[in-house]
Specification:
The structure holds 2 protein chains of 2 kinds. Chain A is globular. Chain A contains 10 helices and no strands. In chain A, 75% of the residues lie in helices and 0% in strands. In chain A, helix 2 (21-45) packs antiparallel against helix 3 and helix 3 crosses helix 9 (207-219). In chain B, helix 4 crosses helix 5 (137-150) and helix 5 (137-150) packs antiparallel against helix 6. The chains are: A mainly alpha, B alpha/beta.
Chain lengths: 255, 341
């Protein structure tokens, strides 16, 4: 393994991310913050929703911004670089096994997902105003869930980025990302689906459910899916996406 | 000392559409696995058919052939970007497919279409490329300045490459490939789309690099380029090597040297034989009822005897095209079609 090359590629991604910092933050954070504004502030302040809803919403918003930014950070450049600009070729020709390039992409994506999560917590907290009760009493569990969610988004981004074509990007957002967000238990706890039994079990295939519920479990006292199950399922989903993503990447990297 | 290249019995069969570089530009459809695809999967293109050749250390070697002949696939395999269906390829002592990392260290690649990192400036592209190859920050800063100067890119060094012209992108691609001082330089159609001035600069750079004892492999479909640069050539068509040797050897291997392409209103049966009997004619090939290719050791002086022969046979000469001894004629001789077809 050639760490110099690996580190150089990571610095390249870091350099590009720093250069595009403002547009990147807007792209990843504007939507979650607008949602926070509408659901967490306007609807609760006007009394249309109870103040306690803020606690339900905040972990969901964090989950959404982490997952979206990780997916975008990895998938979008890959789709363009593999198919259209072929920019990735110069890194595929660097003296390092190609699979490590995919690993590097995942790590860069995880860092972006974590940064998004870290930025959105205080931002959303401030936006919502008073009445948010976050507790960091379970730091280890919180760190574990954050790590698994970041890996989930980056590995998912790798799989998507190596699976769909340039013309299908719009379709990806309307067919994968939108339903994932709506049925990801980000805006409501999983238990709220109890009256829609079929839906309640159908959404269990959605990884965002575990991200939202896991963060809810580690940050608030809102009822949630048990943490052990969350961590277990996230680990399995991460592993699957990782294997599929790395294989797809290697298949795409050579013709 | 230089590094040689060896290719043994290389075959490549694409069961999905081949990569862009090997088929001109178009959109890549994503393969989906539905049962119907089993019937469709008959798609098969033999890009290389048991190709073997050797490139000597320190040589400028040219792969000459029309579009789709297998040039880019050969380069793809030698540069680890394409998986051979069977056969082996070596850069120096390293098996390209088995020891990819070691092979990648030795090579620099200039792709057919520039694939520069659009998120970076020209200088950053070179600096990061150096870093990928483990150069120290001092070393890569020095080389970057040197190379930017050499390729006349210094004044645009800190501009994003997005705004570069085609010629500048091509120059930067070559600069990047040379950044880590590779022992073997691959150039896939390096002068496609270049203006004559840049083309001459490119030739100069290639010759300079060759003087350092480096091995250079280039593909081209320009005869003059192959003639001007390459010490040895392989002519490739439909995935097979049809001839190889120095440009001189290849040209002198054409029977007669001159090619006269003749078109008549009709070709009477006994006419090819009487053409063959004319002085200096070494080979006659009749095609499709009206055309005859005549290989001979002279060109113009043969026209009058040809006209007389035709008249005697009752045919009328409509068109004559004389080609002097060239690689073009050679290609035509071996494949029966022009390089640009």
């Amino acid at each position: 393994m050639n760490w110099k090359t690996f580190y150089a590629m990571l610095s390249r991604d870091g350099h590009v991310a720093r250069r595009n910092l403002i547009p990147m933050l807007v792209q990843n954070l504007l939507q979650p913050l607008l949602l926070t504004m509408v659901f967490g502030r306007i609807l609760t302040s006007s009394g249309m929703m109870q103040g306690a809803y803020k606690n339900v919403l905040l972990p969901g918003i964090i989950a959404i911004s982490m997952v979206l930014s990780g997916i975008q950070a990895v998938a979008m450049p890959l789709i363009a670089e593999f198919q259209f600009t072929k920019e990735i070729e110069d890194r595929l020709l660097a003296p390092m096994e190609t699979v490590w390039l995919a690993v590097e992409k995942i790590i860069a994506g995880m860092i972006q997902a974590m940064v998004s999560g870290l930025v959105v917590i205080p931002a959303a907290w401030l936006l919502m105003g008073s009445g948010v009760n976050l507790s960091f009493k379970q730091p280890l569990e919180f760190a574990a869930v954050c790590f698994l969610v970041a890996l989930l988004s980056a590995a998912g981004g790798l799989t998507l980025g190596c699976s769909i074509g340039q013309t299908q990007i719009g379709l990806m957002f309307s067919m994968v990302v939108a339903p994932m967000m709506m049925f990801g238990c980000a805006y409501y706890p999983w238990s709220a689906l109890a009256s829609f039994k079929v839906l309640q079990y159908a959404v269990l295939v959605n990884p965002l459910v575990y991200a939202s519920e896991g963060l809810r479990g580690t940050l608030t006292d809102v009822p949630h899916i048990p943490l052990l199950i969350v961590i277990g399922v996230l680990t399995v989903m991460d592993a699957i996406l990782l294997v599929v993503g790395l294989n797809r990447f290697q298949a795409k990297a050579v013709s | 000392m230089g590094i040689g290249i060896k290719i043994e019995e290389l075959r490549k069969i694409y069961d999905t559409p081949p990569p862009m570089a090997a088929r001109g530009f178009s959109f890549t459809p994503i393969r989906t696995k539905s049962p119907k695809d089993k019937e469709k999967k008959k798609f098969e293109v033999v890009a290389l058919d048991k190709v073997s050749f050797e490139i000597r250390p320190g040589e400028v070697f040219g792969l000459l052939g029309p579009n789709g002949a297998g040039k880019s696939t050969t380069i793809g395999i030698l540069t680890t970007r394409t998986r051979p269906t069977s056969g082996r390829a070596f850069i120096g002592e390293y098996d390209v497919w088995q020891q990819q990392v070691a092979a990648k260290r030795l090579i620099g690649v200039v792709p057919q279409r520039p694939n520069l990192d659009f998120a970076l400036t020209a200088r950053e592209i070179l600096l990061f490329h150096g870093a990928y190859f483990g150069q120290s920050s001092k070393e890569r800063a020095r080389r970057t300045d040197e190379i930017l100067e050499k390729f006349k890119l210094t004044d645009r060094a800190d501009g994003m490459v997005r705004g570069f012209s085609g010629g500048m992108m091509q120059r930067l691609s070559i600069a990047r490939a040379m950044m880590h001082d590779p022992e073997v330089l691959f150039l896939d159609e390096p002068s496609a789309g270049l203006d004559p001035q840049t083309r001459l600069l490119l030739w100069e750079i290639i010759r300079d690099y060759h003087r350092l004892g480096k091995t250079i492999v280039l593909t081209t479909h320009y005869m003059d380029e192959a003639d001007a640069l390459c010490e040895r050539l392989a002519i490739i068509d439909h995935g097979k090597i049809i001839a190889q040797g120095t440009p001189q050897q290849l040209k002198s291997s054409i029977p007669g040297g001159y090619l006269l392409r003749l078109r008549f209103d009709r070709v009477p049966e006994d006419m090819p034989a009487s053409l063959r009997a004319l002085p200096g004619v070494s080979e006659v090939r009749a095609k499709d009822g009206t055309s005859v290719d005549v290989y001979a050791d002279r060109g113009g002086p043969l026209i009058s005897p040809i006209v007389n022969t035709a008249q005697a046979a009752g045919a009328e000469l409509h068109d004559v095209h004389i080609s002097e001894p060239s690689l073009e004629t050679l290609f035509l001789h071996h494949t029966g079609r022009s390089l640009r077809d």
